Each structure stands twice: as structure tokens, then as C-alpha cells.
Request: fold
Amino acid sequence: MHRANVASTLAIVLVVLSAACSKRNETTTTTSAPASASGANAVTIPSAMPQQPTEEANATEEQDEKEAADELKSHYRHHFGGVAMFVKIATDSLGVPADEQAKLDKIRDDLDTAIKPARDASTAVMTLLADGVQAGKVDTAKVDAAVAKRDAAAKNVHAAATDALDRLHATLTPEQRTALVEKVKANEEVWKETNSERIGEKGKETRLGRLAEELDLSPDQVDKISAALEKNPPPKADEKTIDAYVDAFDQAFPTDTFDAKSFMQANAANMAMARQGTQRMVYFYETVTPLLTADQRAKLATKLRDRIQEQPPAQGK
Reply:
């Protein structure tokens, strides 16, 4: 379960999106036959032949797929819900019977409520970064204080989610529990793959590559930003702590004796994930900001604020 699982998890989004786009093209390019006139002189007009997708339609589909993949990677890069979010994502595609779906929906809402404080703390960090990018200098003291609050919120996610996790365990069959833990492991692999990218890497599909495309960076800017990012990158994620909890969860959840309260090592795993994602995000924007023009900073600040608004709302109040 390594790159194959990462690719398969990303592929789910792309396949669904591609099917939707194909259906859209079929609908918009096929005309139904008009009703024929009555009587001997009735004439039937054949329906129009489906048109081949135009180059413009193909380009639109490719762009939609790219944006979906980027959105999924961005979600895993700035993961605010820890392992509880992995579990919540895994419930989306379990395919439970209709009579169980209402229970599952309520559990997912309760997981959202447990995650909400960490989500809000992550939003506060991103808002400060957007303000700093706009101003041309990130306020490090304010950001550090917000990051500390975000770490504390991440540490409390598991305790808030234990009841929902226990109810999820009671709701699912042994087969469904096994399917869920496989999805949790796949989600962890995607997170690790996304966060293992060398932060100053200049490839087209890297964070810097996407930024260069979004802001129309010059080659000289890209080189300078890459060099600056490579100077003092944040430490790598504590994957051992994360792996230890996920492995323990994956072994215990399918059994009949699972008790979420006995897995308080989730606190350390959630904090490790939060710290990794936040440190990389803060370092990236603090480093990039001084090397952008005023127009580029304004555009980037707007994009950051848009991402905040695009986050799916949590159920908790």
C-alpha cells in the first residue's frame, strides 16, 4: 500500500469527474427528433448525430480533472482533522444499505463537530497568512500564536470524536469495518505522499509549479523562490508516530472489542499531522511573499481567502 493506493485514491475523484463531464457533453451535443406530422405525408426528421467532443470541450474536461486532483492534494496538504478526518473521508464511499445511511450521516456530522475547532484554528492561520501576503510581510509573532492554538485544537480532536467513533464501530458490520480501515490506510498514504514533496521543487505539478502558473511567475522568480525555500525547510513529518496510531487503529477497529477511548495515542498523531501541514504552509508563504510583485501578492492573497471560503462547513456550531 504505497504509490498504488495513492494513485487509486486520486483516480476515484478523476474517474467520477470524467464521467460527469462526458455526460454533460453528451447531453449538450445531442438533439432529440421532432415529432412526425400526422397523415400520409408525415415526414420523420432523424435525430442529430452526436457530435464529437470539440477541442475546447476536451480542454475543459482536462482542466476540470486537473483542478479536482489539485483540490484533493491541497486538502491532504493542510489536513486539520487528523486521523478522525481520514475516518470521515473513508465513510463517504462505504456503500452502506439505505436503512443504515441515516445513522452514518449523523455520525459523520458528529465527526465534523469534533473536528470544527481544529478547522477554525487552521482558518485563523490561513487568514493571517493571506493578510501578510497582501501587506508584503507576514506577521510572524501573530502567526506563531495562531499555530500554537491550532496545535492545541488538533490535540483535542480525538477526545471529542471518541463517541462518534464508537457509534460508527457499532453501526458497521465486520466486513464494513475492514473496508473502512483499508480506506483509512489509503488516505494516510495520500497524506504522506503529498507532504513528502521537497518544498522547493520546481516541477510543473509541485506546489511551486502551480504557484508559478497561477501568478505568472518569471523564470527568475521561480529560481529565486526555489533557492530560498531550499535554505531552511521545516523538518519532515513524524511519520512513525502517525503510522503507529493508524496501524493500531487498523488492527483494533474490525474487532468486536474496539474502544476509541483506549486510543489516546491519536493525540500525538493528530498533532504531528497538524504540525507538519501548518509548518510547511507557513514557511512556504513567509518565504515566497517578499519575492512577489504587489500585483502577484494581491492575487495570491485573494486565492488564499477563496480557499478558506471553499472549505466545506463543519456541522458543529
